[in-house]
Amino acid sequence: MTANAARHGEVNLLFVDAAQVVTCAGPARARRGAEMRDAGIHREVAVAVVGDRIAAVGPVSELDRALPGATRVDCGGRVLMPGLVDSHTHAIFGRPRSDEQEQRAAGADYLAIAAKGGGIHASVRDLRARSEEELTTLARTRLLRLASYGTTTVEVKSGYGLTVEDELKTLRVIARLAQELPLRLVPTWLGAHEIPLEHRATAQGRAAYVDLLIHEMLPRVAAERLAVFADVFCEPGVFTVDETRTILTAARAAGLALKLHADELTPGGGAELAAELGATSADHLATISPAGVAALARAPTVATLLPGTMLFLGKSGHAPARALLDAGAAVALATDFNPGTSPTPNLPLILTLGVSQLRLSVAEAVVAATVNGAAALGLAGETGQIAPGFSADLALFDIEDVRELPYWYGDRRCRATWARGKACHQFDLPVP
Ligand SMILES: [Zn+2]
């Protein structure tokens, strides 16, 4: 880096005295299989930020010379990492569904609760009754909670509206908050989250809803540029593999990239479909078949695993993370933050589950929530690494060794985050 990298009028930061800088530096794409074993742990290095970009990583004396007058950020012997990337959330919703937790404890399963008008349908009724303003207020607080655990990039889905206007309302909330908050938000249209009750009532209703998705909702979402991704809940009883293929093919033609909720409850061929369509990610995968594992190992598609959902639902089965990695697939971890099945904003807790339940190493879990989370959002060239040219998205954790991040489980060890070089979240740490 040369001194003239410090361009006029930009705030330059020099992060010094970190116990470890975990860079995750490497190719700007998803890491696959054995590539995930190296998180790039460095000691005695500093990180220089010029404006919204990481300019250099190296010895402090060198960076001091290259960036005279930069504001020093004292990391105080803590661990500096790329800001975490939460690549799967349903963060726009109304009331929490705390009542369903007891019903589940008493034996009711997900589909039984949904059949009684609970589950997603309860959130749909609730969201439809709320204004864009009200939803914005609720989502703002919740997204800041996610940020407080070290997350700087969040994918946010619609999917509790299920009418043209209510889905657009949801996506507009995401657009507003993307403008307002320092966090990077990535919007996903999930009009195909469920068949709404009014369409379930008649025999032709299902087909009519798929029709409405493709011919009325999708054109509006695309025309107003309200989403980067389209997603479908591909599951027996929700959307079939054929319906999913039809919806996602139309979405791709409209310019959206693709995601799938696949093989969450039963192995229905969702992972294979994601690979066939070249989807950016296939998410959940708790019941993925061996053929699905093989398909994802060959495809560019990131396997996004959501172990918090299984934990919260009290299920013992987890996605076969080791089989996916051994086959050479790219694995990401995310919260699935949502009011019904995973109401946690805590991505480091999901890293704990990644290690304890999915048997990932700490490095694999860290890469899964940084580089591979970014890849699951088509952002592998933008965020998820501390390397020159990447967005200055950083998280400082109150630990001395990165292995403590999944170790102190449930604890909030995040001290501060920066997104695009600007302070995003801070806990009583005097930082610029
Ligand atoms: Zn989901």
Search tags:
432 residues; alpha/beta; Urease, subunit C, domain 1; TIM Barrel; 2 domains; eight-stranded parallel β-sheet; six-stranded mixed β-sheet; binds zinc ion
Plain-language structure description:
Helix 8 packs parallel to helix 9. Helix content is 36%, strand content 20%. Helix 11 (290-298) links the parallel strand 13 and strand 14 (302-305). The chain has 2 domains: 3-83 and 385-426, Urease, subunit C, domain 1; 85-375, Metal-dependent hydrolases (TIM Barrel, Alpha-Beta Barrel), CATH 3.20.20.140. It is globular. The chain has 432 residues and is of the alpha/beta class. Zinc ion (ZN) binds at residues 88, 90, 261, 336.
Give a brief description:
The chain is α/β, with parallel strands linked by helices and 432 residues long. It is 36% helix and 20% strand.
In CATH, what is the class of the largest domain? Alpha Beta
- The chain-level structural class is alpha/beta
What ions, cofactors and ligands are bound? zinc ion
- How many domains is the backbone divided into? 2
| Average residue pLDDT | 94
Major sheet: order of its strands? Answer: 8-9-10-11-12-13-14-15
Strand content: 15-25%
What is the name of the CATH architecture of the largest domain? Answer: Alpha-Beta Barrel
**Percent range for helical residues?**
25-40%
Global morphology = globular
Helix and strand arrangement:
Elements: E1 12-16, E2 20-22, E3 41-42, E4 46-50, E5 53-58, H1 60-66, E6 71-74, E7 79-82, E8 84-86, H2 99-105, H3 110-115, H4 120-128, H5 132-147, E9 151-157, H6 164-180, E10 184-192, H7 197-200, H8 205-223, E11 229-234, H9 241-253, E12 257-262, H10 270-277, E13 281-284, H11 290-298, E14 302-305, H12 307-313, H13 321-327, E15 330-333, H14 347-356, H15 362-368, H16 371-375, E16 394-397, H17 404-407, E17 414-419, E18 422-426
Parallel strand pairs: 1-6, 2-7, 8-9, 9-10, 10-11, 11-12, 12-13, 13-14, 14-15
Antiparallel strand pairs: 1-4, 2-3, 4-5, 7-16, 16-17, 17-18
Bound molecules: zinc ion.
